[in-house]
Amino acid sequence: QNFVGFLAAMFFFAVGDAFRTGVHKAMIFEYLLKQQKQQFKTDYYGRTRSWSQMGTAFSSLLAGAFVVLTGDYGLIFLFSIVPYVADLLLVMSYPKWLDGDNDSAQTSVSERFKIVWKAFLASLKNSFMLRGLTNNAVHSAFYASAKDYLQPLLKVLALSLPLQLFQEAEKQSAMIIGLVYFLIYIGTSFMSRYAGNFAKLFSQPSKPLNLTLFAGLLAGIVSGFFFQHGFELMAVVFFMVILFNENLRKPIGIAYVASLTDQKSMATLLSVQSQLKALLAAIFAPFIGFLADKYGIGNALIIFGIVVIVLSPFYWVRRVREEG
Predict the structure, then answer these.
(1) What is the pLDDT of residues 118-150, one digit of tens each?
(2) Closest CA to 200 of 257, 241, 248
(3) Is 320's pLDDT higher than 80?
(4) Nearest 5°: phi and psi at 146?
């Protein structure tokens, strides 16, 4: 009921999540380095993300059930505290050596910030790094901006189904949406789990990154076309392709960026990637929203997809052997 308070809460959540995800990914790769298994970056992170998506799948079912039983969406936010506390306890159980070099405690915060900042600026001069960061961020931002339009699509589809599960339209849509999201996240879990296998089909990580970037944008265009012409079910199917595609390419992209930097600046760069995604999503979302208001959701996805594909040469990832 207090939109400003809700906006402030989501802002702090987004900032914290951007830093948290970057640091956590760096910790995963630090662990692999310690175990001398750096070659398994994509496989290991893919399986880690797979379990995350599996948790989201069951959360979707629980969220749908809460709405059906209570009719209160606010309870979902309240109950979400439980897994966050469990996750905090899990992180506290990590090996102490993952906290970093204890000798750095003798260095002031400002000096450490300067060291990392210089390493970050040096990395940005690397064209592979710039393209890798942007390539990942563009698709993730498109996914983050466009996925919010999936729920209205599902609501339209749920209310148009001949099967009437509940007398109240709100409960009908909540149950259908919860079930569909459950199936979607089971699928995204599967895609993340086998991202490493998919990457091994190519000689260079640039190939699957560019291929999946184009595939995701094309799926958005096709979804928009079907929605614009009244084929809601097909629109939802191709919308799901965007979600599957994001979780197939994410482990490959993260491993690609991590391989182009050193351990000292890895956490910073992976956090920057999360923040770049958030920044681009903040740009993409109102642009797609403006197009949706003016031309409809379907045409908005078509126009946006075409524009991003036209601009893709600026963030097309080149082959690693071209480096230098």
Answers:
(1) 666 766 677 778 888 899 999 999 988 887 777
(2) 248
(3) no
(4) -80, -30
Q: Which of 17-21, 128-132, 211-215 has the highest mean pLDDT?
A: 211-215
Residue 175: partners with Cβ closer than 8 Å, 6 or more residues away: 64, 68, 158, 165, 166
End-to-end CA distance of the chain: 55
Pick from 151, 174, 176: nearest CA to 162: 176
- Tokens representing 69 are 């039983």
Rounded-to-integer distance, Cα 224 and Cα 228, Å = 6
pTM to 2 decimals?
Answer: 0.81
Boundaries of every domain in the chain? 3-94+122-322
Q: Is 213 helix (H, G, I), strand (E, B) or coil?
A: helix
The torsion of the CA quartet 50, 55, 57, 60, rounded to 10 degrees, works out to -150
Compute the Cα dihedral for 108, 112, 118, 120 and give only its sign.
negative
DSSP-assigned letters across all residues of 229-250: TT-HHHHHHHHHHHHHHHHHHH
Q: How far is 2 from 77, CA to CA, in rounded Å? A: 15
CATH of span 3-94+122-322:
1.20.1250
- Please check whether residue 185 is in contact with residue 56, taking contact to mean a CB–CB distance below 8 angstroms: yes
Residue 95 DSSP class:
-
Residue with structure tokens 């600046």? 265
